[in-house]
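Our consortium's second objective concerns turning raw sequence data into structural hypotheses that experimental partners can test. To show how far this objective has progressed, the report includes one record in full. It was chosen at random from the queue rather than selected for favorable results. The single chain below, 275 residues long, was entered without modification.
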Amino acid sequence: MNYFDAVVLGIVEGLTEFLPVSSTGHLTIAEKILGLDVADHAVTGFTAVIQMGAILAVIVYFARDIWRIASGWCLGLVKAEYRGSFDHRMGWYVIVGTIPIGIVGYALKKYITGDLRSLWVVAAALIAWSAVMLYAERRGRQHRAERDLGMRDALVVGVVQCVALVPGVSRSGATISAGLLRGLDRVAATRLSFFLSIPALLAAGLFELKDALGGDIGLGETLVGTAVSFVVAYASVAWLLKFVAHHSIGKFVPYRVALGLVLLGLLATGAISAT
């Protein structure tokens, strides 16, 4: 991998990490176009590490909220009067909601970084989960705001987040859809999706760091990819929050389906290989 590859993948990661279009799917496609081996542990490790740039963007963007929630959670541990506060409860929601993907991701790591990286899987997941997104928009009542969140909401959204380990599903597409089906409005579901992404993607990046730096990919390329991912992701976060306040996530479905169909056509004709 050279610096050009690192910049391209950083842009793709930053653009797609938080949009409901699947960053892993797009990264897999980009890696194929660049001639990289998508099954190489160094490459899969690199894609996980540059996610930390996107996560840093979320941390910076929501710094005040994160500080307030972290402070409220910590205060609730030592002072009973803070335990009923929203911030204390939100801290627990993020912790509990992260546990499922931590367990499933660790247990199925071999498949997530191996067989599931097939473009056949990406194409099928792009199309199939689009139907779930449309269903969530039509069935979700969207009558509950962020302050109405409960532990069951966090656990349900956290469990559904595990589905996003399949490339092509989209972590944000999965979690926002789950939030909508729980009755949350789009902004509340999207903010919960962002908060749950922080520990999940940060842990994945740290876990894969040794693979990224242990192969042919240098530290310089990894740092460049991560920095580019941060800058682009920050803009994407700001845009998405404004977008979902007034638009359905179903707006992303035509693109997802079109991309999935194009991939299926290219794979079926042998124009590209699946791995």
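The partners drew two points from this record. The chain has a mean pLDDT of 91. DSSP finds twelve helices and no strands in the chain. Both points have been shared with the crystallography group to help prioritize constructs.
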